[in-house]
């Protein structure tokens, strides 16, 4: 079976068998985000961390190990999401991410959290039909939701989680044309400004004039990194259009 055909067949099988649970997952996530905005109690924050852990485990176990087990190297991608789940468990135990509202970036964060809802809309606009559509509870859409959530509610970012999300965005860019899934371009477009915001916040919080490099130099390096990443992603996305 052709790789692209296998890719979309596994997505269709996943959607056909889990659409009710996917819808419930989206609704629970929306409810928890609303509660964090309006009633950010300790119980709500704990529930949100449990939700994110379970969301990552869902992608690792249900999506990859079960429905995508016919794909080559499915175990490697499952392992990446299992690691992210473990990082979130560690974060929950240590309380590193406090889930405090970040008003400077919450509008951008909310936008990115809503973008996963556009995945099936884009698929429909491309003439695709259920169950063979990109859904809101797939790896790239979950990664996009996580990025938006961290922007809106994390004043202190967990760099390990950012590293894995950045890695996954690179994987997502490679799939856009390999598997004909332009919906993943949303993640590529979101990760570049997110990296800039997260790293700039980290530098301003954790570095001083005596740091090596100093904050000014670090900011220049961050801008250069994000610019290079943005140019790379743009070139990959635009390449087939220029041929």
Largest sheet: number of strands, sense, barrel closure: none
- Derived from helix and strand composition plus strand pairing, the structural class reads mainly alpha
Please tally the β strands and state the result: 0
Q: Are there runs of 5+ residues with pLDDT below 50, and where?
A: none
How many helices? The count is: 9
Beta-strand residue fraction: under 5%
What general outline do the C-alpha atoms trace? globular
Level of helix content?
Answer: over 70%
Distance between the termini: 27 Å
**Rg computed from alpha carbons, rounded to a whole number of angstroms:** 18 Å
Spell out the helices and strands N to C.
HHHHHHHHH
Average pLDDT figure: 88
What features would you highlight for this structure?
243 residues; mainly alpha; 76% helix
Task: Give an overview in words.
- The protein has 243 residues and is mainly α.
- It is 76% helix and 0% strand.
- It has nine helices and no strands.
- Helix 7 packs antiparallel against helix 8.
- The two termini are 27 Å apart.
Question: How do you describe this structure in short?
Answer:
The protein contains nine helices and no strands. The chain has 243 residues and is mostly helical. Helix 4 runs antiparallel to helix 6 (139-153), helix 6 packs antiparallel against helix 7 and helix 8 runs antiparallel to helix 9 (215-242).
